[in-house]
Design goal:
Blueprint lengths: L5 H4 L30 E4 L17 E4 L4 E3 L4 E5 L2 E4 L4 E6 L2 H7 L1 E4 L2 E2 L8 E6 L5 E3 L4 E9 L27
Antiparallel strand pairs: 1-5, 2-11, 3-10, 4-9, 6-8, 6-11, 7-9
Length: 176
């Protein structure tokens, strides 16, 4: 049976972004003896505390401060970790808040995406939502590093999208 001519079925499209080459590692992912992909970490100073998980089932690796600093009340600060990382291709590292700091001191984390090809020093942006300055001591656990799988499909510009029941409704449109 002959295949249909797809050019007559699919409307003309334009790519909206240039092709970005993917990382090339010949399909090899470095793994531990148990076959688990590795989170490779480089210490950038003697003050660096390696990321660690608090328990065997912890999702995140605790990140620690490499400096003493203050996060001003209702302000923000960039806290150095003096770490550089290499994560497996097909993942990204997300910097997430620590629940204890959020609950007890109103400390949150911002701008938390680290791409697989970034090799610079990891800094953590802390936001202080309280009315009291927050003191960070060297070695304090300030955030969590979570490794997440991602999908990076090619971008295809189209004239229309399929319709759904929800449509363009957002910001609570599906609630009561």
């Amino acid at each position: 049976m002959a295949q249909p001519d797809l050019q007559n079925i699919i409307p003309e499209t334009k790519e909206s972004s240039p092709k970005i080459p993917k990382l090339q590692n010949n399909g090899v992912v470095q793994t531990s003896e148990t076959g688990t992909p590795l989170l490779r970490v480089k210490k950038l100073s003697e003050l660096t505390v390696l990321p660690s998980r608090a328990s065997p089932l912890s999702a995140g690796y605790d990140l620690s401060s490499a400096a003493e600093t203050k996060v001003p009340a209702r302000g923000k600060a960039l806290i150095p970790t003096d770490l550089s990382i290499s994560i497996p291709e097909g993942t990204y590292a997300r910097i997430a808040p620590r629940s204890g700091l959020a609950w007890k001191y109103s400390i949150d984390v911002g701008a938390g995406v680290i791409d697989a090809d970034y090799r610079g020093s990891i800094g953590v942006i802390l936001f202080n939502h309280s009315d009291v300055d927050f003191e960070v001591k060297m070695g304090d656990r300030i955030a969590q590093l979570i490794i997440e799988k991602i999908m990076t499909p090619d971008v295809l510009e189209v004239e229309d999208l399929d319709s759904t029941v929800r449509g363009g409704g957002g910001f609570g449109s599906t609630g009561v």
